[in-house]
């Protein structure tokens, strides 16, 4: 495993790790008063750092003694099995072989963090993710976890995240600074809203350092309650 991918595990005192803990706190607060368990993470376009973000958030949730299941739902271009160096028998095997989700869960990859990899690439990813069978698989393990995080594909590339958005408790949008235009971000938000998704907020990622020896992350909610992550 690359330590840079899982900085919250290998350098828990770093400013970046503190940033993820702040995201954890804000996510927990956003769920106050509502049943917030199944959360989908998506991005606008590929390579925005979505999978790294959701993996590290899963790690810091585990460090807070929350039991987390992370599922790779990017069925066309999955990455979690490579990032975590795991065998890729996973979600799509449940559909193809009619087996329960528990049978493909890989336990305690990090403390309190379990993983379900994507499995082999299927011919019909959107149909699988939006199916009643998918919801049944999640319900099978619902009582075993405090949080179930879904690593979804980018919302402007395929329809998967928009389709599943209304079926989960909330959606977080990961945005890469300088890589996504404001218009693209608005379009992604609009697609999720049209799909009746409960948008919890957005994480702004990949902001360049402005001071070599003094960098940190900070967070705020704007008037539309969009979550941002900065470092400088």
Strand order in the largest sheet: 3-4-2-5-1-6-7
Give the uncertain stretches in residue-range form: 211-232
Beta-strand percent range: 15-25%
Structural class: alpha/beta
Number of domains: 1
- CATH H-level homologous superfamily name: P-loop containing nucleotide triphosphate hydrolases
Mean pLDDT: 85
Oligomer: single chain
Task: Indicate the CATH class.
Answer: Alpha Beta
Characterize the structure shown.
The chain has helices spanning 7-10, 15-30, 50-63, 80-83, 91-97, 125-129, 132-141, 160-165, 182-194, and strands at 38-43, 68-72, 106-110, 113-116, 147-151, 170-176, 199-205, 217-221, 227-231. With 232 residues, it is an alpha/beta fold. It has one domain: Rossmann fold (3-Layer(aba) Sandwich), CATH 3.40.50. The strands form 2 sheets. The protein has a 7-stranded mixed β-sheet with strand order 3-4-2-5-1-6-7, sandwiched between helices. Strand 8 and strand 9 (227-231) form a beta hairpin. The longest helix has 16 residues, at 15-30. It is globular. Residues 211-232 have low confidence and may be disordered.
